[in-house]
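check this:
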Amino acid sequence: MSSKDTPLATAGPAARPAEVVREYAFDGVSAVHGVTHDGHHVWAAVGARMLAFDPTSGEPAQALEHACDAGTAFDGKHLYQIAESRIDKIDPATGQVLASIPAPGGGGDSGLTWAEGSLWVGQYRDRRIHQINPETGALIRSIESNRFVTGVTWVEGELWHGTWEAEESELRRIDPQSGAVLDRLAMPQGMGVSGLESDGQDLFYCGGGGSGKVRAVRRPRTPTTSRSNA
């Protein structure tokens, strides 16, 4: 383990059921690879395009033609999208690619989110979450998991990631310093998580993989909610 790594996460507490409050489906969409939230719309990476929809009505609001086979993020102004071995920085108004950096997994990356000036990248089979410099792609540090990582998000100082392994999916809250698992939400049988983003409040949006759906899951509130910075 390098000096930039945190220790391997343990299994943590027993999982409790995730509360799925809504499902979204879209015409012509057969798979969802990543999700993000721009403060108004949810964006879903659906293969050859990025689709924005209104989470209240469920209606599509915008589409950008762009290769997108994994995680998606929003920094308050720009979208970021994993496309094979790179991460593209995109103008959401025009779809123009403004810059690109190497993805840390070189094609094995999954989740993506923005927090405190950094990109956080989930690596699926390597079972890691990387914090990287959004301008250069340089690795800042890594957190190990004991499950495949299929999505990652920060909300109110909490670091959560999705898992999908052995036909089971969970949302897990982990300690950003030690990697210890602090909370586990088990998705219903048959519901996988292929991307994860918070709305900054009480909901997670989860990509549903080959179902072609996005699902909204209630974020639990606990008295031990961390307020530390990413």
